[in-house]
Amino acid sequence: MVFEGLGFTFNVIAAASGVHIPMSRAQVISFVTFEDDGSTILTLKESIGGASEQNLVKIDRFWKSPGIGGAWTEVTQTAAATADLADDTTNDSMVVTIRARQLSDGFDSVEATVDGGICIAVIYSLAEMANPSSLPSNLVV
User: Structural domains in the chain?
Assistant: First the structure.
C-alpha cells in the first residue's frame, strides 16, 4: 500500500450537501463550503443510518474566509444546528467541524446541507488505513 494522505489520514466527499456520512470509521468531519456571494447557510443533522434525523445543535464555533485564500476568522455563537453567512457580504467560505463524540447516544451519522454553493466533507482521524481505490467517495445511506 502506498501511504498517501487519502486513505491514510483522510477521505473526501466532494459533493457532500445532503449526504448522510457514517462516523463509524472516523472521528472527525470538517465541512468546507464556498459560495461566491457569501450567503451560505449550513445546517447539521444527525441520524441513525440515515433515518430518524434530528438537528445536531453542536455548532458553537466555525471559521469563515473571504474569497479563495483569504485569512480565516473564528466565529463563536451559542450552540446551534446552523452556521450562517447569509448577512456576510465579505466571506465566501466556511469550515464547520463535528466530532463523533458530539453525536447523541445511538446516533451514528452526520449530514450537512447547504442552501447554495458547494459543500465538501473532509473525513479524518480514520479508524483504519485503506487504499484510496477502496474508499467510497460518495456515501449515501
Answer: 9-129 (2.60.120)
